[in-house]
Design a protein that fits this description.
rod-shaped, Porin, 495 residues, 3 domains, 28 strands, Immunoglobulin-like, mainly beta
């Protein structure tokens, strides 16, 4: 039977599908650090969603004068485990254990103690996760090798895992056990068999606490040493018979994805030695255990370490933080008197709200404007004055840009506004150049962005647009009162 268990486990390793990416080591360490026996420390950690875990374990103990004077009791067990997590918070497990025990008088093997297990966890705080679990085990009958469904062992427990550092975990488990496995034993059973197969007829309140360290030692190796103290309390028997176990061990996680886990450790019995006067099965003086586990997941769920969470949170803040802004502070004045203009209204392209300057001073301040790649178009109007449009480049972060907007009064011969831009016809790049109206002897240079704007009296005018190294273009324009004439010119380079 043991050969079958080994072959099944090796087949699972061969068929294992590598995880898509390396997971945090915490989720790879088997949730129960100790081997079966007393319920040991559980770890309330998220599972790998849709993850499969195959485990094969051995434990061995050999003690002289444990139960009878001058008698040596030897026990070794093999355990095969399969766990599936349909969700990162929930997992189901199936365990099967074969136990062989012998002393000077006999050697007995049980074909297995199948057990079903369910566990649930919930992250309560950033570094604190709580969980609950239950398991149901049916022992093998010692008389006919069948499953003794009338002699179960039922466990229910709650666990809290606190992670004060990324490399350290502290876990505490409290539980209740209803053990009726003694019903599967013969009518008369000696203390040696009761100890070897863990038979008991009792109710127990179980407890366990443990510390686990987690370190990445190498790209291919991670280590997780652990120490535990576990035990049980029952109203049957004296305090000297209440089981207490201290455990120490090391889990090693191999491969870059940390899929392969190898654990080794020892239990030391501090209290509760077996014997005819002990109503419980009792604990060994010492017990060596070894476990090899394969973690597989078709859709791994990364468990983010605390420091990584902090980095992610900072990145999220950086992404969703308010964009950098600037403001514009200015003054509206008349071109002839240089005095403030009451009743002026300012509109910024793309913004729905108007700005009204102070009627006494003509000053205004915009709200916070986003610093982007584009320019801001500002249009200013006032009764009795021509409209004015200017372009303002974004300022620096938290800068307040100062501008002055001068409006021209409307006269009998007042006309309109001519504005536009110059670009390279082939590349689309902006050009610096000049707009010239010969009849008015008016020559207007463009700004650094190739844009221009100026007032033109009512009338018909030829306009020449030039730029060094480019062919001059000529346009005819007609200006009426209040017109805004837009001319965007694409100039071609001279051959």
């Amino acid at each position: 039977m043991s050969k079958v268990l080994v072959l099944v486990f090796l087949a699972s390793l061969i068929l294992a599908i590598p995880a898509a990416s390396a997971q945090d080591m915490a989720t790879r360490i088997s949730a129960q650090t100790g081997m079966p026996g007393l319920r040991k420390t559980q770890r309330a950690v998220p599972f790998m969603k849709h993850g499969l875990t195959f485990g094969y374990g051995l434990d061995f103990t050999k003690s002289s004068d444990l139960i009878l004077s001058s008698d040596t009791v030897e026990r070794h067990a093999q355990t095969l485990s399969l766990t599936y997590a349909p969700h990162a918070r929930f997992a189901l497990g199936l365990h099967h254990r074969i136990v062989t025990t012998k002393n000077a008088l006999e050697a007995v093997q049980l074909i297995g103690d199948p057990a079903l297990e369910a566990r649930y966890n919930f992250p309560l705080l950033t570094n604190l996760t709580v969980g609950a679990g239950s398991s149901l085990m049916f022992p093998t009958s010692s008389t006919n090798s069948s499953i003794a469904f009338d002699s179960p062992r039922f466990d229910i427990s709650g666990t809290a895992t606190y992670r004060p550092r990324t490399w350290l975990e502290a876990s505490t488990t409290l539980g209740y056990r209803l053990d009726r496995t003694l019903g599967s034993a013969p009518a008369t059973v000696n203390a040696t068999r009761r100890f070897g197969f863990g038979w008991s007829d009792s109710q127990q309140f179980t407890y366990a606490m443990g510390l686990t360290g987690i370190w990445d030692a190498h790209r291919y190796v991670g280590v997780a040493p652990f120490v535990e103290l576990s035990g049980a309390l029952t109203n049957r028997g004296s305090m000297s018979r209440q089981p207490v176990i201290a455990s120490v061990g090391l889990n090693t996680l191999l491969l870059p994805s940390r899929q392969l886990e190898v654990g080794i450790g020892t239990d030391v019995g501090l209290n509760g030695a077996p014997g005819s006067s002990n109503p419980l099965s009792g604990v060994a003086k010492w017990d060596l255990f070894f476990r090899i586990t394969m973690h597989m997941s078709a859709a791994p769920t990364p468990i983010v370490p605390t420091q990584t969470k902090t980095v992610i949170q900072e990145k999220i803040k950086e992404i969703v933080r308010s964009p950098d802004t600037f403001k514009i502070h200015g003054k509206i004045v008349s071109t002839d008197t240089k005095k403030p203009i009451p009743g002026a209204v300012i509109d910024i392209a793309g913004e729905a709200t108007h700005i009204s300057p102070d009627p006494a001073t003509g000053e205004f301040t915009t709200w916070a404007l986003t610093i982007g790649e584009g320019l801001y178009q500002i249009k200013t109007t006032a009764g009795g004055y021509l409209m004015n449009e200017i372009t303002v480049a974004p300022g620096k972060k938290d800068e307040i840009k100062e501008i002055v907007i001068a409006l021209q009064p409307v006269t009998g011969r007042q006309g309109g506004i001519m504005k536009g831009s110059l670009k390279n016809a082939e590349t689309g790049a902006t050009l610096a150049g000049t707009v010239f109206i010969p009849s008015l002897e008016k020559q207007i240079p463009t700004d650094a962005n190739g844009q221009f704007q100026f007032n033109v009296p009512i009338g018909n005018y030829p306009v020449l647009i030039t730029s060094p190294g480019y062919i001059t273009q000529k346009k005819e324009i007609q200006v009426r009162h209040g017109d805004v004439i837009i001319i965007n010119i694409d100039l071609t380079q001279k051959p």
